[in-house]
Structure to design on (153 residues):
């Protein structure tokens, strides 16, 4: 029991550190930044690579407006696949937020934000919450389970 708790805490600490770095890059802590971070963490784990692996590139779709586009910076911060180094291919979508992580040997994994979760977040954000409340929502996403947030294929 104690071992399990320690392990869980370790994982959270790692995620917290990643969030801190991404916030420094992005400028603020918001829910969609954290969604991008968590998508990136899953992509690296599923493909068994570390950030910046030369074989890795990412193709993602998102709505082309803030706050949805904040997801892009989360993915860039975690994977080091960026618009600038041409390892991140961006496509606008009318709704879906999804990232396909690909290795040059053909291995892929796709992480998609659950439509229900996205709807929930859109509703919350449309209520003109304060930046403090937004941070609270972002913190909940740090703690949420992967299965609640994403479909992984
Ligand atoms: Zn943002």
């Amino acid at each position: 029991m104690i071992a399990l708790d320690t392990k869980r805490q370790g994982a959270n600490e790692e995620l917290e550190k990643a969030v801190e770095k991404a916030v420094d890059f992005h400028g603020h802590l918001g829910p969609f930044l954290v969604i991008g971070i968590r998508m990136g963490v899953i992509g690296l784990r599923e493909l068994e690579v570390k950030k910046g692996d030369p074989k890795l590139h990412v193709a993602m779709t998102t709505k082309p407006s803030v706050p949805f586009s904040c997801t892009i910076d989360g993915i860039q911060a975690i994977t080091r696949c960026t618009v600038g180094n041409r390892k991140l291919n961006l496509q606008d979508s009318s709704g879906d937020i999804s990232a396909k992580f690909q290795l040059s040997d053909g291995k892929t994994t796709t992480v998609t934000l659950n439509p229900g979760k996205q709807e929930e977040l859109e509703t919350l954000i449309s209520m003109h919450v304060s930046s403090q409340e937004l941070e609270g929502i972002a913190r909940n996403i740090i703690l949420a389970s992967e299965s609640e947030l994403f479909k992984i294929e």
In short: The domain at 2-152 is CATH 3.30.1330.130 (60s Ribosomal Protein L30; Chain: A;). The pocket of zinc ion is lined by residues 26, 28, 30, 33, 67, 70 (CB under 6 Å). The radius of gyration is 15 Å. Helices lie at 2-26, 31-47, 70-79, 115-126, 131-143, 146-149.
